[in-house]
Write a structure and sequence with these properties.
about 270 residues; alpha/beta; 2 domains; about 20% helix; about 30% strand; globular
Length: about 270
Amino acid sequence: MHHKSTNIQLQYQGYLNTPLLWEGHDLLGLKQFSHSKQPTAKFRDHSVLNLRLGKRVEQFVFSELKAIPGIEMLLENTQIQKENQTIGEIDCILKQGEQPVHLEIIYKFYLFDPNYGNTEIDHWIGPNRNDSLVKKLEKLKDKQLPLLYNAYTVPVLKALSLKPEAIVQNVYFKAQLFTPYNKSVAFKLLNKKCIQGFYIHLSEIQQFSNCKFYIPNKLDWLQETHNHVEWLKFPLFKEKITPIINQKIAPLCWIKYPNGMIEKFFVVWWD
């Protein structure tokens, strides 16, 4: 199997190649950060080995942005303190040219459930149904971005000789999206290029009995599919995922069809 550093490089590539969840317009007033794409650099910071997925992605973002001429990082992961209590964290403040930008970083996996909510945005939920796109957008609007204007953030900005009103606020929101098996989904607000595969209920996977499978660990959910993994035949795959599903956890898996095509998919426990 892969050496950890190879895996990190593949995770970084996967992160870089994940499209922004929306482009060219605001979504509920939230504006995506844009920059001119640079050729992919190697990811060299191995301190990320101990970081879980969300924190690891933040380091990937910092690494990507630092490699872009004209972008200067001023702050990363700075906690805002009120006496001894942390009231929130600013992901990043950077300068793009002369313009200071407060950037919040988000990387998510969402599944389209047509029965959940009423609008295009409502239908996208986390694989285990405990988070949703709407909740995340509301949290950004109501909690994370307003932190810039909090009285306790003033000293942090002062140290950088910045005033909050001079700072533009953007999000860097990337996502992998999964649609119900064999159903098409209409995209008006979100970026269709984010579709990475499908999802299916455990009771329906028998139809793939002639395929092979791989169950990546959570950090490797970032990776793009490739052939250099230890593929499982259907009976062993089913045996391995059934106890996971029984714990109400929806795993991300890779499927390799008899024709050699490989795709990502989630097996879900909910209907």
